[in-house]
Fold:
Amino acid sequence: MSTSSLAHLYSKSACCAVPSAIREINKLVDSPGMKSLAGGWPDPAVFPGQEIIRITNELLNDKADRVLQYGTTEGLTELRRELARLATERYGIVCSPDHIVITAGSAQGMDLACRVIINPEDLVFVGLPTYFGGTGAVMAACGELLGVAVDNMGMDTQQLDDQLQRLKKSNQRAKGVYVIPNFQNPTGNTLSFERRKHLVELAERYDLIIFEDDPYGDLRFEGEHLPPIISLDTHGRVVHMRSMSKTFAPGLRVAWTIGPPEMIRKMVVAKQFVDVATNSLAQYILLEFIRSGLWEKRVQLNNQHYKSKRNFMLKQLAAHFPEQAQWNRPDGGFFIFVKLPKTLDTSTLLTEAIAHNVAFVAGQPFFIDGSGTHTFRLSYSQSSESVIAAAVAELGRLIKKKLK
Ligand SMILES: Cc1ncc(COP(=O)(O)O)c(C=O)c1O
Structure:
């Protein structure tokens, strides 16, 4: 087929959207023999395959007419009812099915929220660093990004406050803040309770929407769960994205967004034109999985599994990395974030590591201001202990060589 450039015909949104750096790395990681600590995907070893086979068979035998049919755009009513109960009892988010839309992954929740909230050139604050799926959704809506520092207590809300004040003085305003409150991707850090409250105050003071992206919240290995930001907000300024990808099965693409009913209705209208409805069979499977108590059990099992992997990786890092490297000890989730001396460039390190069949994610793409060139993200979720041990040892060797 002959190709001529159609660049002049592409929409503004298509031009604003940029591909995710992780997707590019995933292609490399697939090569045979690669010892990868790059992908932040769940471990297939804990997928509930047998339970899903049993439930699917029962559903197809008993109610194929319903589970193979189109569903409503907002999602299966019984599932939204069950999720509203879970949200109220487990997370302290008091809500009803009207506050919930079921989405194809929380990625779709963020995309729909951006479609509903973001106009071209609207300003949205994001963490330095943050997950590029979130920033990508804002950019696809042609919004613009501003960075706020992230430290070991999550996004620095005092710095956010200062920046919001400066904007106000110059007669500008921001539309929102994108935040990953628990075991953030990529740092693994959790937003403190004080900062959660501060964020809610700032949203009210500066008329902002908070995009609370929480796919890792259920994966807490130790310590107390902190209240979700949406549960601290009394003004309906928070849209809260949850996912079943990390605790159930990401390939089934079931997630849910909680928000004020008016905003959820607008997201439902936007979703109608995107995919009509989320996969009916997947929603019925999840409904049965939750109702029968399997989901709660699975969360506990998964957390033991990932905790032991986290501990293993921490032990390997302590054994093989030089003292000039710093890293955190996450209380949950999938990620450990490493900082090297500022003179070291981790994208060069990545090229060398890949030549030795080891992969990780260099930190810079997580920083919208181009900083973070001395950082990188490691994930312990997907790889076996033998791969973690070999990859960390090789990385330690390469870093020590560079430091010489
Ligand atoms: C912070 C964050 N948000 C959203 C997602 C997307 O998850 P889902 O599978 O629910 O679309 C991910 C996936 O890794 C993530 O890390």
